[in-house]
Design goal:
It contains eleven helices and eleven strands. It is α/β, with parallel strands linked by helices. The chain has two domains: about 35-130 and about 260-325, D-Maltodextrin-Binding Protein, domain 2 (3-Layer(aba) Sandwich), CATH 3.40.190.150; about 135-230, Periplasmic binding protein-like II (D-Maltodextrin-Binding Protein, domain 2). Strand 6, helix 6 (about 175-185) and strand 7 (about 190) form a beta-alpha-beta unit. Helix 2 crosses helix 9. It is globular, with a radius of gyration of 21 Å. The protein starts with 11 loop residues before the first helix and ends in a 6-residue tail after the last helix.
Protein backbone atom coordinates (compact mmCIF):
# COMPACT_ATOMS: atom_id res chain seq x y z
CA UNK A 1 0.00 0.00 0.00
CA UNK A 2 1.35 3.46 -0.90
CA UNK A 3 0.98 6.99 0.33
CA UNK A 4 -0.85 7.91 -2.84
CA UNK A 5 -3.24 4.91 -2.93
CA UNK A 6 -3.99 3.94 0.68
CA UNK A 7 -7.68 3.27 1.21
CA UNK A 8 -9.46 6.57 1.67
CA UNK A 9 -11.61 5.43 4.55
CA UNK A 10 -8.56 5.06 6.84
CA UNK A 11 -8.27 8.10 9.08
CA UNK A 12 -5.05 9.50 10.53
CA UNK A 13 -5.54 8.07 14.01
CA UNK A 14 -5.97 4.52 12.82
CA UNK A 15 -3.07 4.98 10.44
CA UNK A 16 -0.72 6.14 13.19
CA UNK A 17 -1.62 3.08 15.23
CA UNK A 18 -1.12 0.75 12.31
CA UNK A 19 2.13 2.39 11.26
CA UNK A 20 3.57 1.78 14.72
CA UNK A 21 2.82 -1.91 14.30
CA UNK A 22 4.45 -1.85 10.90
CA UNK A 23 7.58 -0.12 12.20
CA UNK A 24 9.63 -3.28 12.18
CA UNK A 25 8.74 -4.11 8.60
CA UNK A 26 11.12 -3.06 5.84
CA UNK A 27 8.73 -0.87 3.90
CA UNK A 28 10.11 1.34 1.13
CA UNK A 29 10.55 4.98 2.06
CA UNK A 30 7.36 6.99 1.66
CA UNK A 31 5.18 3.89 1.30
CA UNK A 32 3.36 3.90 4.63
CA UNK A 33 1.28 7.08 4.67
CA UNK A 34 -2.48 7.35 4.83
CA UNK A 35 -4.18 9.21 2.02
CA UNK A 36 -6.92 11.64 2.91
CA UNK A 37 -10.02 12.08 0.79
CA UNK A 38 -9.04 15.75 0.59
CA UNK A 39 -6.88 16.93 -2.32
CA UNK A 40 -3.32 18.13 -1.87
CA UNK A 41 -3.17 21.93 -1.88
CA UNK A 42 -0.25 23.73 -3.52
CA UNK A 43 -0.17 27.34 -2.33
CA UNK A 44 1.31 29.91 -4.71
CA UNK A 45 1.90 33.26 -2.96
CA UNK A 46 1.77 35.23 -6.23
CA UNK A 47 -0.89 36.14 -8.76
CA UNK A 48 -2.40 33.90 -11.41
CA UNK A 49 -0.31 34.16 -14.57
CA UNK A 50 2.96 34.96 -12.79
CA UNK A 51 6.04 32.87 -13.53
CA UNK A 52 5.64 31.06 -10.22
CA UNK A 53 1.96 30.35 -10.87
CA UNK A 54 2.46 29.09 -14.43
CA UNK A 55 5.32 26.85 -13.37
CA UNK A 56 3.39 25.50 -10.39
CA UNK A 57 0.36 24.65 -12.53
CA UNK A 58 2.46 23.07 -15.26
CA UNK A 59 4.49 20.89 -12.90
CA UNK A 60 1.88 19.98 -10.29
CA UNK A 61 -0.69 19.02 -12.91
CA UNK A 62 1.78 16.46 -14.20
CA UNK A 63 2.60 15.26 -10.67
CA UNK A 64 -1.13 14.92 -9.95
CA UNK A 65 -1.60 12.69 -12.98
CA UNK A 66 1.43 10.62 -12.09
CA UNK A 67 0.45 9.89 -8.49
CA UNK A 68 -3.30 9.65 -9.07
CA UNK A 69 -4.03 12.29 -6.42
CA UNK A 70 -5.80 15.61 -7.00
CA UNK A 71 -3.57 18.64 -6.50
CA UNK A 72 -5.26 22.05 -6.36
CA UNK A 73 -3.35 25.29 -6.93
CA UNK A 74 -4.42 28.10 -4.58
CA UNK A 75 -3.15 31.66 -4.98
CA UNK A 76 -2.76 33.43 -1.64
CA UNK A 77 -1.18 36.72 -2.61
CA UNK A 78 0.00 39.89 -0.95
CA UNK A 79 2.89 41.47 0.96
CA UNK A 80 5.56 40.24 -1.42
CA UNK A 81 4.50 36.62 -1.10
CA UNK A 82 4.64 36.56 2.69
CA UNK A 83 0.90 35.98 3.19
CA UNK A 84 0.87 32.68 1.30
CA UNK A 85 4.21 31.57 2.71
CA UNK A 86 3.15 32.39 6.26
CA UNK A 87 -0.06 30.44 5.78
CA UNK A 88 1.84 27.28 4.81
CA UNK A 89 4.40 27.69 7.60
CA UNK A 90 1.55 27.39 10.12
CA UNK A 91 -0.29 24.53 8.39
CA UNK A 92 -0.51 20.96 9.64
CA UNK A 93 2.52 18.87 8.60
CA UNK A 94 0.32 16.14 7.15
CA UNK A 95 1.50 15.98 3.54
CA UNK A 96 -1.67 17.67 2.29
CA UNK A 97 -0.19 21.12 1.64
CA UNK A 98 2.85 22.53 -0.15
CA UNK A 99 4.19 26.00 -0.84
CA UNK A 100 5.42 26.74 -4.37
CA UNK A 101 7.57 29.82 -3.86
CA UNK A 102 10.17 31.73 -5.84
CA UNK A 103 13.48 33.45 -5.14
CA UNK A 104 11.42 35.96 -3.13
CA UNK A 105 11.59 33.33 -0.37
CA UNK A 106 15.17 34.40 0.32
CA UNK A 107 14.67 38.16 -0.03
CA UNK A 108 11.55 38.84 2.07
CA UNK A 109 13.39 38.48 5.42
CA UNK A 110 15.39 41.59 4.53
CA UNK A 111 12.35 43.60 3.45
CA UNK A 112 9.98 42.40 6.18
CA UNK A 113 12.03 42.14 9.40
CA UNK A 114 8.89 41.50 11.47
CA UNK A 115 7.83 38.36 9.62
CA UNK A 116 5.79 35.99 11.74
CA UNK A 117 7.60 32.99 10.27
CA UNK A 118 11.20 31.97 9.65
CA UNK A 119 11.97 31.38 5.95
CA UNK A 120 14.41 28.61 6.91
CA UNK A 121 13.15 27.02 10.14
CA UNK A 122 9.53 27.65 9.16
CA UNK A 123 9.60 25.09 6.33
CA UNK A 124 10.91 21.75 5.20
CA UNK A 125 12.56 22.00 1.80
CA UNK A 126 10.97 19.65 -0.70
CA UNK A 127 12.32 20.24 -4.20
CA UNK A 128 13.93 22.78 -6.44
CA UNK A 129 11.79 22.94 -9.56
CA UNK A 130 12.96 25.39 -12.20
CA UNK A 131 14.98 28.47 -12.89
CA UNK A 132 13.72 31.22 -15.17
CA UNK A 133 16.61 33.22 -16.64
CA UNK A 134 16.26 36.98 -16.74
CA UNK A 135 17.60 38.77 -19.77
CA UNK A 136 19.18 42.22 -19.82
CA UNK A 137 17.33 44.08 -22.57
CA UNK A 138 17.46 47.49 -24.15
CA UNK A 139 15.60 49.06 -27.06
CA UNK A 140 17.40 48.42 -30.34
CA UNK A 141 17.07 52.14 -31.01
CA UNK A 142 19.39 52.92 -28.08
CA UNK A 143 22.31 51.43 -29.97
CA UNK A 144 23.81 49.40 -27.12
CA UNK A 145 25.45 46.25 -28.46
CA UNK A 146 26.78 44.77 -25.22
CA UNK A 147 26.47 45.07 -21.46
CA UNK A 148 29.84 46.80 -21.51
CA UNK A 149 28.40 49.55 -23.73
CA UNK A 150 25.90 50.43 -21.01
CA UNK A 151 28.58 50.35 -18.32
CA UNK A 152 30.96 52.51 -20.33
CA UNK A 153 28.27 55.12 -20.95
CA UNK A 154 27.08 55.03 -17.33
CA UNK A 155 30.60 55.47 -15.95
CA UNK A 156 31.22 58.41 -18.27
CA UNK A 157 27.84 59.96 -17.37
CA UNK A 158 27.18 59.28 -13.67
CA UNK A 159 23.48 59.07 -12.90
CA UNK A 160 22.40 59.39 -16.52
CA UNK A 161 21.46 55.74 -17.10
CA UNK A 162 17.98 54.60 -16.12
CA UNK A 163 16.84 51.06 -15.38
CA UNK A 164 13.33 49.74 -14.96
CA UNK A 165 11.78 47.14 -12.68
CA UNK A 166 8.37 45.71 -11.99
CA UNK A 167 8.61 47.04 -8.44
CA UNK A 168 11.19 47.79 -5.78
CA UNK A 169 12.74 44.61 -4.42
CA UNK A 170 11.20 42.47 -7.15
CA UNK A 171 12.97 39.77 -9.14
CA UNK A 172 13.38 42.31 -11.95
CA UNK A 173 14.96 44.87 -9.62
CA UNK A 174 17.53 42.82 -7.71
CA UNK A 175 19.50 41.60 -10.74
CA UNK A 176 19.80 45.19 -12.01
CA UNK A 177 21.22 46.30 -8.67
CA UNK A 178 23.59 43.35 -8.54
CA UNK A 179 24.81 44.14 -12.06
CA UNK A 180 25.17 47.85 -11.24
CA UNK A 181 27.17 47.22 -8.06
CA UNK A 182 29.46 44.67 -9.68
CA UNK A 183 30.05 46.89 -12.72
CA UNK A 184 30.58 49.94 -10.49
CA UNK A 185 28.28 52.55 -12.00
CA UNK A 186 25.47 54.74 -10.78
CA UNK A 187 22.06 55.05 -12.34
CA UNK A 188 18.42 55.87 -11.67
CA UNK A 189 16.03 53.06 -10.75
CA UNK A 190 12.53 53.56 -12.16
CA UNK A 191 10.05 51.13 -10.56
CA UNK A 192 6.72 50.42 -12.25
CA UNK A 193 3.53 48.77 -11.04
CA UNK A 194 4.31 45.71 -13.12
CA UNK A 195 6.28 44.21 -15.99
CA UNK A 196 4.06 45.44 -18.88
CA UNK A 197 4.50 49.10 -17.89
CA UNK A 198 8.25 48.67 -17.54
CA UNK A 199 8.48 46.92 -20.89
CA UNK A 200 6.57 49.70 -22.66
CA UNK A 201 8.96 52.36 -21.39
CA UNK A 202 12.00 50.33 -22.39
CA UNK A 203 10.60 49.78 -25.87
CA UNK A 204 10.16 53.53 -26.35
CA UNK A 205 13.78 54.10 -25.36
CA UNK A 206 12.83 56.29 -22.41
CA UNK A 207 14.41 53.71 -20.08
CA UNK A 208 17.89 52.41 -20.84
CA UNK A 209 17.71 48.81 -19.63
CA UNK A 210 15.62 46.23 -17.86
CA UNK A 211 16.09 42.67 -16.56
CA UNK A 212 13.03 40.66 -17.56
CA UNK A 213 12.05 36.97 -17.64
CA UNK A 214 12.83 35.56 -21.06
CA UNK A 215 9.31 34.75 -22.26
CA UNK A 216 7.76 38.25 -22.43
CA UNK A 217 10.82 39.55 -24.26
CA UNK A 218 11.51 36.65 -26.62
CA UNK A 219 9.39 37.67 -29.62
CA UNK A 220 10.52 41.31 -29.36
CA UNK A 221 14.15 40.19 -29.31
CA UNK A 222 13.61 37.98 -32.33
CA UNK A 223 11.88 40.70 -34.34
CA UNK A 224 14.64 43.18 -33.58
CA UNK A 225 12.77 45.66 -31.39
CA UNK A 226 14.78 44.71 -28.33
CA UNK A 227 18.45 43.85 -28.00
CA UNK A 228 19.40 41.08 -25.56
CA UNK A 229 22.74 41.96 -23.97
CA UNK A 230 23.20 39.24 -21.33
CA UNK A 231 21.35 36.69 -19.22
CA UNK A 232 21.35 36.77 -15.43
CA UNK A 233 22.16 33.10 -14.84
CA UNK A 234 25.67 31.64 -14.65
CA UNK A 235 24.98 29.44 -17.67
CA UNK A 236 23.50 30.42 -21.01
CA UNK A 237 19.76 30.25 -21.59
CA UNK A 238 18.48 27.52 -23.90
CA UNK A 239 15.99 29.95 -25.46
CA UNK A 240 18.77 32.49 -26.20
CA UNK A 241 21.90 30.40 -26.80
CA UNK A 242 23.81 33.24 -28.51
CA UNK A 243 23.37 35.68 -25.63
CA UNK A 244 26.29 35.68 -23.15
CA UNK A 245 26.01 35.40 -19.40
CA UNK A 246 26.96 38.45 -17.34
CA UNK A 247 30.18 36.67 -16.38
CA UNK A 248 30.99 36.09 -20.04
CA UNK A 249 30.19 39.75 -20.69
CA UNK A 250 32.90 40.69 -18.22
CA UNK A 251 31.00 40.92 -14.94
CA UNK A 252 31.65 37.88 -12.74
CA UNK A 253 29.61 37.59 -9.54
CA UNK A 254 26.80 39.60 -11.10
CA UNK A 255 24.65 36.53 -11.72
CA UNK A 256 21.15 36.36 -10.27
CA UNK A 257 18.91 33.30 -9.99
CA UNK A 258 15.16 33.59 -10.34
CA UNK A 259 14.10 30.16 -9.16
CA UNK A 260 10.98 28.29 -8.14
CA UNK A 261 10.84 25.56 -5.51
CA UNK A 262 8.52 23.56 -3.27
CA UNK A 263 8.34 23.65 0.52
CA UNK A 264 6.28 21.93 3.22
CA UNK A 265 5.26 23.01 6.73
CA UNK A 266 7.83 22.44 9.47
CA UNK A 267 7.94 18.95 10.94
CA UNK A 268 6.44 17.36 7.84
CA UNK A 269 7.94 13.84 7.95
CA UNK A 270 11.07 13.42 5.87
CA UNK A 271 9.59 10.43 4.08
CA UNK A 272 6.71 12.57 2.79
CA UNK A 273 9.08 15.33 1.68
CA UNK A 274 11.35 12.76 0.04
CA UNK A 275 8.44 11.26 -1.87
CA UNK A 276 7.27 14.66 -3.09
CA UNK A 277 10.87 15.47 -4.06
CA UNK A 278 11.23 12.28 -6.08
CA UNK A 279 7.91 12.71 -7.86
CA UNK A 280 8.56 16.36 -8.73
CA UNK A 281 12.09 15.61 -9.92
CA UNK A 282 10.88 12.77 -12.11
CA UNK A 283 8.24 14.99 -13.69
CA UNK A 284 10.59 17.94 -14.26
CA UNK A 285 13.04 15.63 -16.05
CA UNK A 286 10.41 14.18 -18.37
CA UNK A 287 10.90 15.31 -22.01
CA UNK A 288 7.37 16.65 -22.45
CA UNK A 289 7.46 18.70 -19.24
CA UNK A 290 10.95 20.02 -20.00
CA UNK A 291 9.65 21.12 -23.40
CA UNK A 292 6.73 22.94 -21.78
CA UNK A 293 9.06 24.73 -19.39
CA UNK A 294 11.37 25.69 -22.24
CA UNK A 295 8.36 27.17 -24.03
CA UNK A 296 8.33 30.03 -21.56
CA UNK A 297 12.04 30.23 -20.91
CA UNK A 298 12.16 28.06 -17.79
CA UNK A 299 14.71 25.32 -17.28
CA UNK A 300 14.68 22.34 -14.87
CA UNK A 301 16.57 22.95 -11.63
CA UNK A 302 17.52 19.57 -10.24
CA UNK A 303 18.97 19.24 -6.75
CA UNK A 304 18.77 16.87 -3.85
CA UNK A 305 16.98 18.22 -0.81
CA UNK A 306 20.35 18.70 0.93
CA UNK A 307 21.69 20.58 -2.08
CA UNK A 308 18.58 22.76 -2.12
CA UNK A 309 19.17 23.59 1.56
CA UNK A 310 22.73 24.70 0.78
CA UNK A 311 21.51 26.68 -2.22
CA UNK A 312 18.98 28.55 -0.06
CA UNK A 313 21.64 29.33 2.52
CA UNK A 314 23.82 30.85 -0.20
CA UNK A 315 20.91 32.87 -1.55
CA UNK A 316 20.32 34.36 1.89
CA UNK A 317 24.03 35.16 2.25
CA UNK A 318 24.05 36.96 -1.11
CA UNK A 319 20.73 38.77 -0.91
CA UNK A 320 21.17 40.27 2.55
CA UNK A 321 24.29 42.32 1.72
CA UNK A 322 22.89 43.20 -1.72
CA UNK A 323 19.69 44.66 -0.29
CA UNK A 324 21.60 46.44 2.46
CA UNK A 325 24.10 47.91 0.00
CA UNK A 326 21.36 49.44 -2.14
CA UNK A 327 19.31 50.67 0.80
CA UNK A 328 16.13 49.52 -0.93
CA UNK A 329 12.92 49.25 1.08
CA UNK A 330 9.34 48.30 0.28
CA UNK A 331 6.09 49.76 1.53
CA UNK A 332 4.53 47.69 4.32
Amino acid sequence: MSYWSMNRFMNRRSFLASSAALGAASLPIGSAFAQSSRPIRAIVPFTVGSGSDITARTVMDKVSSKIGQTIIIENKTGAGGTIGAGYVSKAEPDGEILLIDSSAHTTVPFFYPKLDYDPVKGFETVASIATIPLVLITAASKGYKSAKDIVTYAQANPGAVTYASGGTGSATHLPAERFRLQAKFTGVHVPFRGGPDAMREVLTGRIDFYFIPVLPALSLIKNGQLTALAVSTNTRCLALPDVPTLAEAGYPNADYNFWIGAFAPPKTPSAICDRFHDEINAVVQSPDLAAKLAGYGAEPMLMSRAEFDKFLARELEVNGPLIKATGMTVEQ
